[in-house]
TrEMBL record, chain A:
GO molecular function: glycosyltransferase activity
InterPro entries: Ade_phspho_trans, Adenine_PRTase, PRTase-like, PRTase_dom
Pathway(s) per entry: Purine metabolism; AMP biosynthesis via salvage pathway; AMP from adenine: step 1/1
Species of provenance: Platanthera guangdongensis
Gene symbol of the encoding locus: APT1
NCBIfam families listed in its UniProt record: apt, PRK02304.1-3, PRK02304.1-5
Annotated protein name in UniProt: adenine phosphoribosyltransferase
Keywords, in A-Z order: Cytoplasm, Glycosyltransferase, Purine salvage, Transferase
Primary location class: cytoplasm
Family: Belongs to the purine/pyrimidine phosphoribosyltransferase family.
Automatic annotation (TrEMBL), chain B:
Gene assigned in the entry: APT1
Subunit structure: Homodimer.
Compartment(s) where it occurs, according to its Swiss-Prot or TrEMBL record: Cytoplasm
InterPro entries named among the record's database cross-references: Ade_phspho_trans (IPR005764), Adenine_PRTase (IPR050120), PRTase-like (IPR029057), PRTase_dom (IPR000836)
Reaction equation(s) it catalyzes: AMP + diphosphate = 5-phospho-alpha-D-ribose 1-diphosphate + adenine
Pfam annotation, one family: Pribosyltran
UniProt source species: Platanthera guangdongensis
Protein name per UniProt: adenine phosphoribosyltransferase
Family designation: Belongs to the purine/pyrimidine phosphoribosyltransferase family.
Domain of life: Eukaryota
Amino acid sequence: MLPLRVMAAVDEDARIKRIASTIRVIPNFPKPGIMFQDITTLLLDPTAFRDTVDMFVERYRDKRISVVAGVEARGFIFGPPIALAIGAKFVPLRKPKKLPGEVISEEYTLEYGTDTMEMHVGAVQSNDRALVIDDLIATGGTLCAAINLIERVGAEVVECGCVIELTDLKGREKLGNRPLFVLVKGT
Amino acid sequence: MLATWATSLQSLSLPHSRLSPVPSSPSSQLDSLNLTTHRRSFPGVSTRLMTSSDEKHRIERIASSIRVIPNFPKPGIMFQDITTLLLDPNAFGDTVELFVERYRDQRISVVAGVEARGFIFGPPIALAIGAKFVPLRKPKKLPGEVISEEYSLEYGTDKIEMHVGAVQPNDRAIVIDDLIATGGTLCAAVKLLERVGAVVVECACVIELPELNGREKLGGIPLFVLINRA
């Protein structure tokens, strides 16, 4: 009988292998040269999708997280099940002009030009402990904007959680000293 | 506008729908009991056997958590804002649970969610009932090969897309969105699923705006909602 610690690691490894194997790569999307990591095929495997959520829930359930912020749109798929499981509020972070109430906005740089991310005023309080969830971290620009929105209202970003990290794009560095947790690393 | 929970209770019954009759309805058996047993069938949602007064209270709480924003996105529109529902973990959990209770024994193999607010409600339901989650998206968002369905807007048209291969013939599907207004988007979603040979068992929304007659636009496809808002 294997010691408990070793068994846990093996189980986690099997789950991650399954999750990684369900992610489809689409070459040259949205433009030539980009190998797009498509998580929609993960969502077609109920066990892999369940395992993905479970791995985040296991990590965060005892960390007194009060807010799960999800970045539009794929962060809306992973964030809510995590929020429900750990009893946290879910806060959608959206492209401009989508949220109907009063918002605060954060601009961030794209390869060419800028974009803006918005959050509802009043959704996050200064004593909230927050996670930011997205399907993937590339350059880290989007996650940085999300972190800024949450910190501007005085809350603490405990960690960012993504299914996939594209390590070559060094998004982790862009987050500074804020922790980043990912399930699968890709190039 | 106050939610008309009496009407929404009517929505909870199962008339002429494609759902198979569920034997021995828990709510009828347990009406006189005050059960508080919780079963956790999946993370975060306790599948408490609900009494009908439970259901009323849950729907009232859900309805009261939805904020109305006047004149958004344009003058005259009273926008039903579900983001405030998402800030109440109990109300959000109850919302998901009400759908899960309805569909868990219906052999649903696909939950299709309409971008973007359908992405918030669909996945927790899919996870709880063991179904695939299929995102239906605005044009050019899905990276793989897609099929598209065009639909009318007040001025002009729009399109939604679904990945080829996501849904198989004979999949039993439900379509989820936060709200049904004119029904144009949901209609397009239903068509995408039917074009690949799936059976759309039902469309399900948190809110219906009944004055806009979306229900009729769905033709023979049943619609289930929790709340009606004028």
